[in-house]
Amino acid sequence: MKKLDNEKELVKKALRVGSVYAEKRGAAKFEANDSAADRMLYIYRLLVHDKLVQPLPEDQVSQKSIQHKLALWASRLD
To answer: Alpha-carbon distance 14 to 34, whole Å?
Structure first.
């Protein structure tokens, strides 16, 4: 897995856009005290469920791989 040049910014964008997507869809309402890790996992699972991202094999799901997947997704939004 090759790290993207601006992966950190893309992950922030994915959290922002993914949170709005989940709330508009009626699937979640995130609170201010929800951790970023929990938000990332939920957004990843929602995007996989909606077939917007390809799922990772269950044994390869980790914080780092989820961040990378969300960054790739965010890079394709524009």
So the answer is: 16
Per the CB < 8 A criterion, the answer to whether 67 and 7 are in contact is: yes
Scan for tokens 């893309």, then name that residue. Answer: 10
CATH node for 9-75? 1.20.120.1930
Per-domain residue ranges of the chain: 9-75
Query: pLDDT, tens digit, for every residue of 16-59?
Result: 999 999 999 998 888 889 899 999 999 999 999 999 999 999 99
In which residue are the tokens 């949170």 written? 19
